[in-house]
């Protein structure tokens, strides 16, 4: 949908459904959870009966308030007259089940709502807008109704906006991002609740985990311009740390002076997950992610690499680092 009427067109499709099914990508981050639960709260306020499907549950980091959702896939996809997939640019990562992908029974009634610029539009209908967060797209859709946004919906959407902008610090933050945040605050969202949950609620065991990760598991390339950390299963077990709560961990690496591109490597069956961030606009990371069938944004992207072990993944990053910086030599 590219016309100026896209919020109302999307809203009309949502409100035409009595029993919509809402889902996001596997291993959901704050924007995936916030945009999905925020839309669900809004639809309930409109008299609809949405079902929220989150196979991986809600990580501790994002448990902002009570939420209605299920982790088990429904036994009958036909029970839903619309499937809504949020914040998902790659169909294979769709969270309709633990294995990913879009069930054949849902393809003809799939509405994709997303903000990733590399989303190819794989839904029957696609609401794709390049803004800071999918929560911002959902906000505009809800606002087009002309009715008040419930406080619970505003809280969840603010969670999505705050997390995907890194607390309004990342390059995707624009003037309109702040305007969206202001409207959510006007709707009753609690910035104090969101900020305390995301940034000031870190378990002590996680702080110990992060200290050891920085001390013993960071590697370097390109004379310090690139850094990555290896999260081994042993390290996770030692500190009883759940990688679903790791959204802020990569920012520790990003904060290292001189490191322009950083990555976090972790085990994700059947391969290895590589999350990447760049703080140099001349060195985007999304093309590297695309090379390995991943995706994301220019400055924040991820990919899953098939490899025999961590050493092979590190060798790939070291080899690719030369290509990353080829256009911006020092």
Overview of the structural elements:
By secondary structure, the protein is an alpha/beta fold. The chain folds into two domains: 6-199, inorganic pyrophosphatase (n-terminal core); 204-324, Roll (Diaminopimelate Epimerase, Chain A, domain 1), CATH 3.10.310.30. Helices cover 36% and strands 17% of the residues. The chain contains eleven helices and eleven strands. The strands form two sheets. It has a six-stranded mixed beta sheet. Strands 2-1-3-4-5 form a five-stranded parallel beta sheet. Helix 1 (6-15) packs across helix 3 (134-143). The radius of gyration is 20 Å and the shape is globular.
Could you provide a short overview of the structure?
The chain contains 11 helices and 11 strands.
């Amino acid at each position: 949908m590219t016309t100026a009427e896209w919020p109302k067109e999307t809203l009309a499709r949502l409100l035409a459904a009595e029993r919509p099914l809402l889902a996001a990508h596997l291993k959901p981050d704050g924007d995936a959870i916030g945009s999905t639960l925020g839309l669900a709260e809004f639809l309930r306020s409109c008299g609809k009966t949405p079902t929220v499907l989150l196979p991986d549950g809600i990580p501790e980091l994002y448990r902002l308030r009570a939420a209605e959702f299920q982790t088990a896939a429904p036994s009958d996809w036909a029970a839903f007259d619309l499937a809504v997939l949020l914040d998902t640019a790659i169909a294979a990562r769709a969270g309709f089940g633990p294995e990913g992908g879009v069930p054949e029974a849902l393809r003809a009634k799939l509405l994709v709502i997303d903000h990733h610029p590399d989303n190819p539009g794989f839904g029957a209908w696609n609401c794709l807008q390049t803004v800071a967060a999918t929560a911002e797209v959902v906000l505009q859709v809800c606002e087009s109704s002309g009715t008040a946004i419930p406080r619970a919906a505003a809280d969840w959407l603010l969670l999505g906006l705050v997390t995907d902008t890194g607390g309004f610090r990342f390059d995707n933050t624009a003037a309109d991002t702040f305007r969206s945040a202001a409207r959510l605050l006007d709707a009753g969202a609690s910035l104090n609740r969101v900020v305390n949950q995301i940034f000031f609620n870190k378990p002590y065991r996680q702080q110990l985990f992060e200290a050891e990760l920085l001390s013993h598991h960071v590697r370097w390339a390109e004379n310090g311009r690139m850094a990555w950390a290896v999260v081994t299963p042993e390290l996770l077990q030692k500190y009883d740390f759940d990688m679903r709560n790791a959204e802020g961990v990569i920012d520790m690496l990003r904060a290292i002076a001189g490191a322009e591109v950083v990555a976090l490597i972790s085990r994700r069956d059947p391969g290895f997950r590589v999350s990447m961030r760049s703080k140099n606009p001349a060195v985007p990371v999304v093309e590297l992610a695309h090379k390995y069938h991943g995706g994301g944004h220019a400055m924040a992207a991820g990919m899953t690499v098939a490899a025999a072990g961590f050493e092979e993944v590190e060798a790939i990053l070291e080899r690719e680092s030369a290509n990353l910086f080829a256009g911006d030599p020092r």
